[in-house]
Design goal:
Number of helices: 12
Order of helices and strands: HEEEHEHEEEHHHEEHHEHEEHEEEEHH
Distance between the termini: 47 Å
Number of strands: 16
Largest sheet: 7 strands, mixed
CATH class of the largest domain: Alpha Beta
């Protein structure tokens, strides 16, 4: 695996650059798998410690990055590289946060050196081509989504059975989901398995890899002929369940753009369209009515400006997966949520 990674790395450099691989000293406190030396044409060289793993979870990546950082300091090296068959997006984030480079065999690479000046960054697979054989490998489906929402919206600690009751799920399934989230470095667990800390920002982003606002829900586009103000006047009198999401569900303090499309979860699209007096439109639509994949979108809704709006965690994931300006709006919303947790978590 190291040989393959080095061969791929060499092809990214001009022929005048040299790469050699050696063995680390056996007396080191951390038994790394190799030492990689990169030499530029002017003779400037950098030595990097190398660790190779067939597979690596985000939690393992964070732990390895910490140990490699200690080796760099102890041995006065120039850097470190983790090599693996596949390194997920969260794992790559953990490594880059600690300044540790990485190479995986799908093409994800990042190496940054000050001397000699070198930056290599390429993108490979975003999904593991050979995922590990374990019970839970994703956050797809209603039950997993309910667990994610509960973890985001509720301050820990949360016991397994308590969480299972909250989301109406089997404790065994809930425990397996928590095991998965732990390996993904998204939660911390106590001695009895309870959740004692939630990295809800990364949890929302990880959820967005398996849930999609545009693909997970049924939706239809409409035109409000009298404009969105007329629509918002009619919404409070709609007696069935509804909840605005997207741009118009973002708190004013966190908004970075003016909304142009009113996205609204409803239990019955056709019934809502009749009440709101909107008409079908393939082009020029300003209203998006959405039947949700699960009723969880109506959990922990907020009343704002006399209208019902989704919980901020739901709003964030909907924006992340809605395309256009949505991801940028989601980034701004998550940043605001981080500084105002007491206003939306309980």
């Amino acid at each position: 695996m190291i040989e393959t990674a080095v061969e791929n790395l060499q092809t990214s450099l001009p022929g005048s650059w040299q790469i050699t691989v050696g063995k680390p000293d056996e007396t080191w406190s951390f038994q790394a798998d190799g030492l990689l030396a990169i030499r530029s044409p002017d003779g400037t060289a950098a030595t990097m410690v190398v660790e190779a793993k067939r597979g690596v979870t985000p939690r393992q990546a964070a732990e390895v990055a910490k140990r490699l950082g200690e080796v760099i300091t102890e041995q006065k090296l120039d850097g470190a590289i983790l090599i693996s068959e596949y390194i997920s997006g969260l794992s790559r984030e953990r490594l880059r946060k600690e300044g540790v480079g990485y190479i995986d065999l799908t093409g994800n690479r990042w190496i940054a050196l000050e001397s000699p000046g070198l930056l290599i960054e390429t993108n490979g697979a975003e999904i593991d081509p050979s995922p590990p054989d374990r019970a839970i490998r994703s956050l797809k489906g209603a039950k997993a989504s309910r667990i994610v929402r509960a973890l985001c919206d509720t301050f820990p600690p949360l016991g397994v059975r308590e969480l299972a009751r909250m989301v109406n799920a089997n404790p065994g399934y809930t425990s397996r989901v928590l095991d998965f989230l732990y390996t993904e470095d998204l939660i911390e667990r106590g001695e009895r398995g309870e959740v004692v800390e939630t990295n809800w920002q990364d949890l929302i982003r990880r959820w967005s890899q398996d849930y999609s606002f545009t693909n997970s829900n049924r939706m239809m586009t409409y035109l409000a002929p009298r404009g969105l103000e007329d629509l918002f006047t009619r919404l409070p009198s709609y007696e069935a369940q509804y909840a605005l999401t997207g741009s118009f569900a973002v708190p004013a303090e966190a908004s970075i753009v003016a909304g142009r499309l009113a996205a609204c979860f409803v239990s019955d699209i056709e019934g809502a369209a009749d009440h709101l007096q909107v008409r079908l439109a393939e082009t020029g639509a300003n209203v998006l009515l959405v039947e949700p994949f699960d009723r969880l979108v109506f959990d922990r809704v907020r009343l704002d400006e006399d209208m019902v709006k989704v919980a901020l965690s739901q709003c964030a994931v909907d924006l992340l997966t809605s395309g256009g300006r949505g991801p940028a709006e989601a980034d701004a919303l998550i940043a605001w949520m981080q500084g105002n947790e007491e206003r939306w978590r309980s």
